[in-house]
Structures are given as C-alpha cells and as structure tokens.
C-alpha cells in the first residue's frame, strides 16, 4: 500500500469512528475536496471497512434526503458513489422526466459517455449546495462504465432521470458541481416560487418567466 493509499484509508477510518451509526456531515460548496479529482478506488480498504463506508454513505444520502451521494461530499477524495431513487408519485412528471425508480446501487470508479445527441433539461439540486436549484441540460442517455462494490464490471446504457443522477454523481468525482453546467438564469431558491418552478414536469413556465431557453 502506498503512502497515499494509507492516508486515504486513515481518513475513512477516522470518519467511521466519528460517525458511528449516524449520518456523516455533508461538506458544502467551497470545500476543496469538492473541486478535486477523486482518487480511484483500488482496494485501499478491507472488505468490512468498505462495507461500513458504503453503509454510512447510504444512510447519509437517505437522511438528507437525496438520490445520490459521492464520497467527496462527506470529505473523502475517493471515486465512490451511491445512488437510489424511489421515483415520483405524479405519473405525468414521471413520464416527462423519464423518472423510473432506481434501486440502490454502488458505483466504483464510474465514468460515462453520451449515447446519441439528445439532451434533457430539468431543475436539479445538490446536497452540497443547499437551498438552491437550477436547470441543467444533461445527456438523455449515457453509457455507464466502472464497477460495483464486489468488483464486478459495469457497462450499461442508462436513460432519463437515472442517467441524470449518474452524471451528477460522477461529475462530483471529477471536481465538477452541477452549477458548472447550469443555466444560471434559472437559478432559484428552494422557496415557494422556486419549488413551483421545480415541480413542473418540464420547466417551461420558469423558462418564460426567468428568460432562459430550453433545448428543443
């Protein structure tokens, strides 16, 4: 194990000791770890340590609540993320956003590349940028590669809202926040007005009111 690997393992063990059975604190925009490229996960942890870390990440994501969490968001510069989305009860919203439920899964060293040219634009938020949301144009379909927590290879095409989640969390591992890709004229506080914009199946009223263009 290299010195860097040992340092990363020590960081994880300290976090696990501090956190116990509680969710971990989520770091916010301005923390350098959110702007660094995460180190590839290459077995720096023992199997039980990895399982404990993923349990903390899952617990933290659910408590927030969110649909994804990358290790840098709890201060760890490792290329690990967890995702899970129960979907939405509104059938119209689910249809327009292509938001099918996404069972819990772990992404290890994930990467993505677009499949086709289609983009979709919807409001998006981030646990590390609380209180705000903005419209982000994302690839409608991406090819996800990487591995799961067992080391099994991932190579699949992901569509719709699940593709959005994959892109958002993988971007975190590259030091990219959703605001870097956002239509900044759409930026809205998570108050009565902003939540109304975000509740639209597609942000057409927000586009007209705030003066930004949605891709066709």
From TrEMBL:
Broad EC category: hydrolase
Gene Ontology MF term list: metal ion binding; peptide deformylase activity
Xref: Pfam families: Pep_deformylase
Binding, Fe cation: 126, 168, 172
Enzyme Commission code(s) on record: 3.5.1.88
Names of required cofactors: Fe(2+)
Active site: 169
Listed SUPFAM superfamilies: Peptide deformylase (SSF56420)
A GO biological process held by the record: translation
Claim: Metal-binding is one of the keywords in the record: yes
Free-text comment on the cofactor: Binds 1 Fe(2+) ion.
Alphabetic keyword roster: Hydrolase, Iron, Metal-binding, Protein biosynthesis
Catalytic activity entry: N-terminal N-formyl-L-methionyl-[peptide] + H2O = N-terminal L-methionyl-[peptide] + formate
UniProt keyword Metal-binding present: yes
Function: Removes the formyl group from the N-terminal Met of newly synthesized proteins. Requires at least a dipeptide for an efficient rate of reaction. N-terminal L-methionine is a prerequisite for activity but the enzyme has broad specificity at other positions.
PANTHER family: PEPTIDE DEFORMYLASE (PTHR10458), PEPTIDE DEFORMYLASE, MITOCHONDRIAL (PTHR10458:SF2)
Protein family per UniProt: Belongs to the polypeptide deformylase family.
UniProt protein name: Peptide deformylase
Lineage: Bacteria, Bacillati, Actinomycetota, Actinomycetes, Micrococcales
């Amino acid at each position: 194990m290299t010195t860097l690997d040992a340092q990363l393992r020590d960081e994880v063990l300290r976090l696990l000791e501090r956190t116990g059975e509680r969710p971990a604190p989520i770091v916010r925009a301005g923390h350098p770890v959110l702007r660094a490229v995460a180190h590839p996960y290459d077995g720096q942890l023992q199997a039980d340590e990895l399982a404990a870390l993923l349990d903390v990440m899952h617990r933290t994501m659910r408590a927030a609540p969110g649909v994804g969490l990358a290790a840098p968001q709890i201060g760890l510069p490792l290329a690990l993320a967890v995702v899970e989305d129960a979907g939405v009860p509104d059938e119209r919203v689910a249809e327009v956003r292509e938001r099918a439920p996404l069972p819990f899964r772990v992404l290890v060293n994930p990467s993505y590349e677009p499949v086709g040219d289609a983009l979709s634009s919807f409001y998006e938020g981030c646990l590390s940028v609380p209180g705000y949301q903005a419209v982000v144009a994302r690839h409608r379909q991406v090819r996800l590669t990487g591995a799961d927590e067992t080391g099994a290879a991932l190579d699949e095409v992901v569509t719709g809202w699940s593709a959005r989640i994959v892109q958002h969390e993988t971007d975190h591992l590259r030091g990219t926040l959703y605001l870097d890709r956002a239509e900044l004229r759409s930026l809205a506080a998570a108050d009565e007005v902003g939540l109304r914009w975000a509740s639209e199946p597609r942000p057409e009223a927000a586009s007209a009111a705030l003066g930004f263009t949605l891709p066709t």
